[in-house]
Design goal:
about 325 residues; mainly alpha; 14 helices
């Protein structure tokens, strides 16, 4: 994450909202392309053509050498494999379920992160965060239950939609694994290196799917895939830059603007109308996340007060 260099909340929020919009448009492109282009090929174009904006930013900031410097190359490989798998599952799932539903299921990532932090990092989870996890998981169950019901009724279309929902849920869980891994990486690695090597590793890893049915796109499709990658790279830059002007506690709640973008884009582009279970489940997941964000902010304030009264050493 970028160090805060200047507190400009309006600029921070504006940059972050712009990034969310670009990622929403990119997701819509992935969804429209997924009928004819395999997920692995889409991951390659997203990663490879996301490289130029990232390289340009690092050069402009004089951070390219930092992006190449690493103390733990193995950690970057692991982060790349898990992150690429998450991206591939998300891209595959987007072709099978509505865009707003995929967006809503993706909101479960912070819930999974809390669970994994307790299991893998030994973090203590008290009643407030346990309640938040419970609310979020109930929301996820509400969203995917109609899919499961359709499968039990023998609906073939529901079978595919259920596969799509489970792929997105799997992607979300892997994204939480990545977040836990990054918490460890930032102790020795800078953000430039993490972004650079993830883009590199996801580009290389996606090439491994080449023997499994890549297709030769026509010119229009090729340009759309290039644009998809560029939008992803620019969106990543905007996210990174936004943290230079505002803290995470300010920016994080604006994640949920992606639902508004997804609803509008899904309706206009794909004629998708959200269902009541999807909206109800999304509301519960968002409520659980809001509770986690609030609790993390309270803990941060408590740590700040504690640090303020500790006498200096030496």
């Amino acid at each position: 994450m970028e160090a805060l260099t200047s507190h400009r909340p309006a600029r921070a929020v504006g940059l972050y909202l712009s990034s969310i919009f670009l990622f929403s448009v990119m997701s819509a492109m992935v969804k429209s392309l997924s009928e004819e282009i395999p997920a692995g090929e889409l991951v390659f174009f997203r990663s490879f053509f996301g490289f130029p904006p990232i390289i340009i930013l690092l050069v402009m900031r004089g951070q390219l050498s930092q992006g190449l410097r690493t103390k733990r190359p193995g950690a970057h490989v692991w982060r790349g494999l898990v992150g690429t798998s998450s991206m591939a599952l998300m891209f595959g799932g987007l072709g099978l379920i509505p865009l707003p539903e995929a967006t809503a299921i993706g909101y479960a990532a912070p819930i999974f992160t809390v669970i994994l932090a307790a299991l893998l990092l030994g973090e203590k989870i008290r009643m407030i965060r346990i309640s938040a996890v419970g609310v979020g998981l109930v929301g996820v169950l509400i969203m995917i239950w109609p899919r499961i019901g359709g499968v039990m009724a023998g609906n073939v279309a529901a079978d595919m939609a259920t596969v799509g929902a489970l792929m997105v849920l799997g992607s979300t869980a892997l994204r939480a694994v990545v977040q836990i891994h990054i918490r460890k990486m930032v102790k020795t690695e800078n953000s430039s290196a993490i972004v650079f090597y993830f883009t590199l590793s996801s580009t290389v890893a996606s090439l491994l799917t080449l023997p499994f049915g890549w297709v030769m796109p026509d010119w229009d499709t090729f340009l759309l895939m290039v644009l998809m990658g560029l939008l992803g790279g620019i969106g990543q830059i905007l996210v990174t830059t936004s943290y230079r002007f505002g803290p995470a506690s300010l920016i994080a709640p604006f994640d949920y603007s992606s639902m508004l973008f997804a609803l509008v884009i899904g309706y206009v582009w794909f004629a998708e109308v959200p269902t009541l279970p999807m909206m109800a489940g999304a509301a519960l997941v968002i409520a659980g996340n809001a509770l986690v964000i609030w609790r993390e902010r309270q803990l941060g304030l408590e740590r700040s007060r504690a640090n303020a009264v500790v006498p200096p050493k030496g």
